[in-house]
Amino acid sequence: MSEPIRLAPFDVFVDPLLGFHDRRLREMQAYWDGKRQGRAMPARADVSPAEIVSHLPSVFLVNVAPPMLNPEDFTVRLMGTALNELFAHDFTGRSFAEVLSAKPSSAFCKLFGIVAQLRRPIRIYGHARFAPGGQVTEVEGVLLPLSGQNGGDTVGLVMGELVKRASSGR
User: Fold this and answer.
1) Domains in the chain, number
2) Which residue segment(s) compose the domain that 155 sits in?
């Protein structure tokens, strides 16, 4: 899979080759990779907010519950302040099904399900309108699987970072 895949119904694409343009996303992926220590993915307990302070405004955590097939299986655990502003809402504690209409929640379910099933990072990029009546914004992001608190091979969370390209640090 070398060509980006469009995440319908959005003008957003999935890049499994991790061709990051934004240095912050490269840093986040390198941080995640360093925390793996030879494992498929780091555990949630391996990630320290104190080590990624400059990233926190644009970081999110999503809980993943089996069977990872329905929008109800993915619940936002944390959203950074920059993301709350971008979406004009804080989705913390709510499932994809609760905060998105059917097509978008299904698309996000598939995207996060892919990360959880493959247990590997992916890059997303494109243009999207995040708030009703808001402007279309160019974004780039990374989705990173984390195992649960006790480690293991099962994804318990997806950690990600989403940045506006207009303000990206190249």
Assistant:
1) 1
2) 5-167
Angstrom distance (rounded) from CA 41 to CA 95 = 23
Predicted confidence at residue 167, as pLDDT, reads 45
Q: What is the pLDDT of residue 5?
A: 83
Count CB atoms within 10 A of the CB of residue 146: 25
Read off the CATH number of the domain in which 117 is found: 3.30.450.20
Q: So what's the pLDDT on residue 32? A: 98
Torsion 126-137-19-105 (CA) sign? negative
Residue matched to tokens 């890059």: 123
pLDDT given at position 133: 80
CA triple 123-126-132, angle to 5 deg: 120
Chain centroid to CA 61: 7
pLDDT, mean of each 10-residue run, the chain (170 residues): 72 91 97 95 95 97 90 94 90 91 87 93 91 85 90 91 70
